[in-house]
Amino acid sequence: MLQNKTTMDRRSFLGLGATAAVAAGAASLAGCAPQTSTDAQLSDTGSQGNTSAAGTADWLGTEPEVAQSDIVETIDTDFLIIGAGTAGLAAAGAAADLDMDFIVCDKANQVPETREYLGGVNTSYAKENNVVVDEAKLLNELTRYASGKCNQKLIKLWINESAEYVDWVTDVMKEQEKEVYLDMPPEHGTGGTDYYVPYVQHLWEPSYVPPMRNDVIAERIASQGHEILFEHEMVKLIHADGKVSGAIFNTKDGYKQINAKNTLLATGGYAANPIMMQALQPAAVACCTASSFNPTCTGDGIKAGLWAGASKDFEAAPMVFDRGAVAPGVDAGYEGNGMDAVLRGTIFQENIGSQPFMKVNRHGQRFANESTPYDFICFAATYQPGGVWCQVYDSNMMEDMTRFETVGCSRVVPYIEMGMTFDEYTAMSQESGILIKADTLEELADQLGFTGQDKENFLAEVERYNGFYDNQVDEDFGKEAYRLSAIRQAPFYGCWFGGSLLTTIDGLRINENCQVLDPELNVIEGLYAAGDVSGSFFSGNYPEYIVGVACGRSSVEGRHVAKQLAGATA
């Protein structure tokens, strides 16, 4: 049964913070990983040499050597899946159904956190709601977002095969009495800007309440007689003469070699690797204050693929959300060095940061249109002092947010209608003392850290912004009238923000069958990649208005590889 978006569980929404907080807290452990010494350097083209700024950073290291005498166990399989996240479990789910001989390994001790949103195009649930996605327009919108730096055939793979995957997942989730619903964005979801917002996001009710989608798939795989080998950290791929034939893992019992006819890398991106982030994603680092990433995503698969002769996307593509709440005076960027470096914020995501309230820099001045995709304000902040901004609103904030009617995971209207309070919505920043509350604007300015001319600028900016609201015209940046708000009714609120880093979505270059390519774009025999370890789909940033496309493409890619190897694709 297809459910309407307004049936979403308010408790589920509030519980999202607890779920992701576990991952954010664990992220600090990522700094415990040893730093690999190196005598080789890699440019962002995926070839040896120093041809760009990214190439000057020593992040790749040399491929480890493991003596055959140190390997305590050798296993043979037809299909090796490295990574038990969204892409890996999609592949394993298909492989189990198709009775393939396969093994799944993951370096964590359990299934990673699940992002519940899942993008599917023209699914049976969309059709039940008389929703038709223009597939050609969607393809070209994603291509435009990537500035053409993508493989359109790979994008079409997601568009063409996502409906079948959503159907499969829905049947699996029904066994846990969790029903799917299509999240229908508001008619003006982008704030009136000219973006294509297709109805593709699917969730399972109640969302963010265990068991999660990936846990259900893992349990189903186990019931079919397939064990996931946890605490298996990939050391390197086994490769020779342009062919990959398995991988070597470090386990609690020693090194293990798994020989495979075909190997799928599904190890995620490199958001938890500050060395790679500083080398390859300086713009993201310059605006991020907090982390929402999986702490196991340290770029292992990307480095192993490069050592095996693969190529990588030329340009970075981070997924950054505007929700990294911090105290006044905290700068964006890392604190510490090497793999011990950490982002300074302690709040992984404060969702109100994505609401289009007035935002100012440290000089008390607006610097961008606040009604844009999540990462736009983050990247705009790299041109501002400290890479951060301050968001300001008054006691009418709940009424304002109802009028704003944003799209995606910032969409809060259904929860307001179910009785969610402001205190519940901003619990993390209130409990930490980061959210500032004051009875006057002058007092608010003082507590936010504005002094001297900056304080005068701030107070003048609020007055000017109130004038825009009165006249329903933003003369400075053209924000839509219905997303303007007055700042007049005490108490007043303010909070400083930077970006929250979720993941990286640039990776190994692949073709439309997810086969990994070398720098000359030849297929590396026996090697596949799916999800965030792979590239060729995004470039520059994440197309936020095509909600759920990240998890959707990861799932479809993983499933496609398994079905193709089993001869089950069309």
Summarize this structure briefly.
It is built from 17 helices and 19 strands. It has helices at residues 10-27, 86-97, 124-128, 135-145, 152-174, 213-223, 274-280, 282-287, 300-307, 374-380, 397-404, 413-417, 422-425, 427-432, 441-448, 452-471, 549-565; strands spanning 71-82, 102-105, 118-119, 179-182, 201-205, 228-229, 233-240, 243-251, 254-265, 288-291, 318-326, 334-335, 342-343, 358-360, 389-394, 436-438, 492-504, 515-517, 523-529. The longest helix is centred in the N-terminal third of the chain and has 23 residues, at 152-174.
Structure report:
By secondary structure, the protein is of the alpha/beta class. It is 31% helix and 19% strand. It has 17 helices and 19 strands. Helix 2 runs parallel beside helix 17 (549-565), helix 4 crosses helix 5 (152-174) and helix 5 (152-174) crosses helix 17. It is globular. Residues 1-8 and 15-56 have low confidence and may be disordered.
Properties at a glance:
570 residues, 19 strands, 8-stranded mixed β-sheet, alpha/beta, 31% helix, 6-stranded mixed β-sheet, 19% strand, 17 helices
Query: What is the CA-based Rg, rounded?
Result: 24 Å
How many helices? 17
Helix content bin:
25-40%
Let me know the number of strands: 19
Distance N to C terminus: 28 Å
Roughly what fraction of the amino acids lie in strands? 15-25%
Given as residue ranges, the uncertain stretches (5+ residues, pLDDT < 50) are 1-8, 15-56
The largest pleated sheet is described as: 8 strands, mixed
- The backbone outline, from C-alpha atoms, is globular
- Global mean pLDDT: 90
Q: Structural class of the helices, strands and pairings? A: alpha/beta
